[in-house]
Amino acid sequence: MDFDALISGLDRHTLDGITRGSIYALVALGYTMVYGVMKLINFAHSEVFMVGTWTVLGVYTAIGATSGSGLAMVIGATLLALIAAMLASAGTALAVERIAYRPLRKKGAPALIFLITGIGCSMVLVEVFGQVLRVFFGRPFGRVTVNIPAVLETKTVFTIPGVDLAVSNTRILIIVGAIVMMLALDAFVNRSRLGRGVRAVAQDPDTASLMGVNQERVIMLVFVLGGAMAGVAALLYTVQYDITKFDIGFIIGLKAFTAAVLGGIGNLRGALVGGLFLGIVEVYASAVWDSSWTNVYAFVVLVVVLMFRPTGILGESLGKARA
Amino acid sequence: MIRSTKTWQAVALTAVAGLALSACGTTDTGGGSSGGGDEGGDCNFKIAAMGALSGPNASIVVPSVDGAQLALDQWDGGDCTVEMERFDTEGDPAKATPVATQIAGDESFIGVIGGAFSGETRATKTIYQDGGIPMISQSATATDLTQEDPVEVFHRLVPYDDYQGAAIAKYLTDEVGATKVFVIDNAEAYGEPLADRVEETLGDAMIQRDKTEVGQTDFAPTISKIESAQPDAIMYGGYIAEAAPLLKQIRDAGIDVPFIGGDGLYGADFGNAVGEAGEGAVVMCPCAPIDESSTFAADFEEAYGGAPGAYAAEGYDAMTVFLKGLEDGARDRAAMQEFVTGYTGDGLSKSIAFDENGDVPQDQVSYWAYKNTGGTLQPEVEVKPAE
Amino acid sequence: MSQILDAVRGLALGERWNHAPKVVRWAVMLLVIAFAFYLPYLNILPFAYIRTDLTASGSDWASVLFLIVVYMIVAVGLNVVIGLAGLLDLGYVGFYALGAYSVAIFGSTNSPVVQALQSRFGLSEDWAVPFAVCIPIAILVSLVAGVILGAPTLRLRGDYLAIVTLGFGEIIRITFRNLDGISNGAAGITGVPVPPGPETDGRAFFNTIDAERWYWLALAILILLIFLARRLEHSRVGRAWLAIREDEDAAAVMGVAGFKFKLWAFAIGATLGGLAGLLFGSKQQYVEPNAFMVNLSFLFVAMVVIGGSGNIFGALLGAFLLTYLPERFREFVDWRPFAFGVALVAVMILRPQGLVPSRRRAREFEDRRHEAEEAAADV
């Protein structure tokens, strides 16, 4: 136990926690939006994220971006990878919805069945990158860890005076990127016409369809938006960690889902709060003890929070996101 | 109820028909052993390769099994027909025991290559012992396998963790000249004992120890511990999947001290996973560089489309020992067991012999530090751990 | 596919079964049980094609049968939690691990706890808690764990329960992995005791080679548990679960205390999970934390749901298929997980009510399907 290390490096640990939590939060948005509208845990969402990381690798390889490229190349490659990852992840999410969820919805199957098809889809997507694509195309696919070139090289941009905390360009990108995307999504859901439809269906699906909201379209929109956010998370993740692997989605997905519940599932701002909170708690606790207990910290915090606030920190409901 | 009477008549009829059918034949449950070794004196045998061929850990095992297959393909068997059967365990002891029971019960198997991991080996070695079938493991390094409750049939081509840990510590103090080493492990059955042994050997030369997890990608808490400890070298006991992001984050934080890992990082996959951040990282491996004149690397690449990965040479060697046994006239498990126990010869990875516990004698093992240069591991220096 | 199903339905087997004379029912049941016990020796074509050891890279048939039965016990237990009480438990592997680890920690001479007891009380190095005592310990530990987990969390709504239980399973595994002084950490514990028995051929009666003995033991326990679970389902507790599952508020109004009965379901499920773990650990004679990953919890849930949750025979069928098929088709090595995923999706889409749903569940499902169709027609 080393509480001194936590206290003396509090600023540093907080920044680390926010960085980690930003990615949790972005992935958590996908869980929370789908849950808000359909009351469904989309177990395949972790793999939607994983597909995004592979897309980033694909884009870099295709345009030949490597670390040490010129500024124009860095910006261009990163933007292109961002768009491609968002598209690929959104497309994957939509495909999962079409293949695994829509037929069940038409039959009015109970929630448990959606869970199993979600797990099935998750296995299929994992195996597509771990096995199927390897058989057809060989490396880099397969069950090994693959490096993604650090196109955006990590550099210290400025040092926060007083606490002497170095802040790097990648961290700024991750934190600012996550918060900007969240604000944009929040504004979209709260301000736009389509967003109003999403909130209406989340609040009361039957009344919403009486009011002329096309429920199917709202569901598709929710999967696309959640998927796109996972795509953003995928790019930010590769910027920070430089790797991908066929089963990389599992742990991120688990944590993001925990974050969504922690913040209040179905609540967009809850995903942000839950993600950041979870990231900070994990980093603090790992600084005091060590990282081999990380999942225990996460789940203990979850249980404690749920005991006092049974619907999460901010409470549920996408419909009342303004509250 | 007429209908129900008819039903039960039908049931009775089916039962009779079933009994009649049963006279039609029986299966041979010896495991499809048409090519078994029981056909009077000729030399038809099978060798089993058991390990994680699917699942997240397959990348550490598949190259060694491919290496064994390569040895078999290159072998001129003369009168002998030998096949290698791959048994997937996913590295899970629960899935390994049915496999082991099957292999032990099928007399056409004359040897086992594996278990690849220590856990599955622990769970299955007594089964193989009961079946009297010799095993040669290419990669199970847990100390207790041979030191605490050894079984006669178990042999391995890799030295156990205690020696490896000592070799890494020796490299750190003698070659790097480190006096403040930061030791990290992955809290798993491979990394933790290895790091324990490094810690023990280093003594005061270790300043701090931290534990991480398999599947972890964000190492920020560990990085900040490293920053405040100011080490002059970092040792990591674990696998490639976590070493890659760990290294990247260490270098991003501006920490430029040497990074040393155990043989869990050895293999062509290391360079692919770590990228530029891994330049100059050192991997300690109880394997001598493969002789320049050997065509192994080229042959392997031609057959499997990639440079030889983890333990490929050990897999090749394990198969070679069994094949030499067949050349020597071993025609059953007892003879093979006797041959393997007494075997001496040069292998790709080291010169091979087994002591009474089934370990390669210490003086036969050479530890080499490999430096990651331009994405491939280049032999740097040989290290002799003190006894 | 659907034609075959229709044909099967046309036979109206269930109805005929209910109308068959009692003697016939008993006779058929005994025959089925006798056949189950005979399975390891099943060697008659064409039936023997179900064996898993026919190809060169197959696995031992009796060992596979044992694993199937252990997972069937798990499915019976989880069916109580998911199928009867309607609680989504994604951390069932935690109880399974507790059962296996209990017998290892107290019964193995290699366990740190036993060694500590030896030196504390000056006992001999061969001393360990006898196997017979380990059984109640394992059952008690999993039961208590079920209550401890259930008490604070069962008040949560369904989906929250899912993630909390999932976390519980992870906490158990990580704790066993990290506590070197109790569970020997990541290396696991060897020398897990086996049930006592007469020595045959110089080996213990329950050994690692003669897997069929383990299979028979597990099968006997399974049959007993099925019998008990059936009785439970039709008891007052079983009816209370049904009421809670269908409408918790209505049940509460009628005086059915939701929390109490949910806790019952959780505790009973936990006990069965622990029992299955005990059998597994003992047969394996070795436990290690990586044998209890989260994925196993998902597999368990999939067994119950694929078979048809709520119906004990559905759960048994699910456990059989999901354990047996990957072993039977070992020759497809690393294509199996892919096929498994595809099969999960396909089966659930074609038969969302499960392969053999309980009659009540099937009716509930029909109702909902009509509602869904009507709703679709409205739009």
From TrEMBL, chain A:
Domain of life: Bacteria
Main localization, broad class: membrane
One cellular component (GO) term of this entry: plasma membrane
Membrane-spanning residues: 23-41, 48-65, 71-96, 108-130, 172-189, 218-240, 295-315
Alphabetic keyword roster: Amino-acid transport, Cell inner membrane, Cell membrane, Membrane, Transmembrane, Transmembrane helix, Transport
GO MF terms, alphabetically ordered: L-isoleucine transmembrane transporter activity; L-leucine transmembrane transporter activity; L-phenylalanine transmembrane transporter activity; L-valine transmembrane transporter activity
CDD domains cross-referenced by the UniProt entry: TM_PBP1_LivH_like (cd06582)
PANTHER family referenced in this protein's UniProt entry, alphabetically: BRANCHED-CHAIN AMINO ACID TRANSPORT SYSTEM PERMEASE PROTEIN LIVH, HIGH-AFFINITY BRANCHED-CHAIN AMINO ACID TRANSPORT SYSTEM PERMEASE PROTEIN LIVH
Listed name of the protein: Branched-chain amino acid ABC transporter permease
TrEMBL record, chain B:
Keyword Signal set for record: yes
Domain Leucine-binding protein: 46-358
Residues passing through the membrane, by range: none
Keyword set, alphabetical order: Signal
PROSITE patterns: PROKAR_LIPOPROTEIN (PS51257)
Signal peptide start-end: 1-22
Family annotation (Gene3D superfamilies): 3.40.50.2300
Keyword check for Zinc-finger: no
Stated family: Belongs to the leucine-binding protein family.
Protein name stated in the entry: Branched-chain amino acid ABC transporter substrate-binding protein
Biological source species: Nocardioides glacieisoli
UniProtKB/TrEMBL annotation, chain C:
GO molecular function list: branched-chain amino acid transmembrane transporter activity
Localization annotation: Cell membrane
GO cellular component: plasma membrane
Name listed for the protein in its UniProt record: Branched-chain amino acid ABC transporter permease
Pfam family, one: BPD_transp_2
Main location: membrane
Membrane spanning residue stretches: 23-41, 61-82, 89-107, 127-151, 214-232, 263-280, 292-325, 337-356
Domain of life: Bacteria
Membrane topology of this protein: Multi-pass membrane protein
PANTHER family (alphabetical): HIGH-AFFINITY BRANCHED-CHAIN AMINO ACID TRANSPORT PROTEIN BRAE, HIGH-AFFINITY BRANCHED-CHAIN AMINO ACID TRANSPORT SYSTEM PERMEASE
Lineage: Bacteria, Bacillati, Actinomycetota, Actinomycetes, Propionibacteriales
UniProtKB keywords: Cell membrane, Membrane, Transmembrane, Transmembrane helix
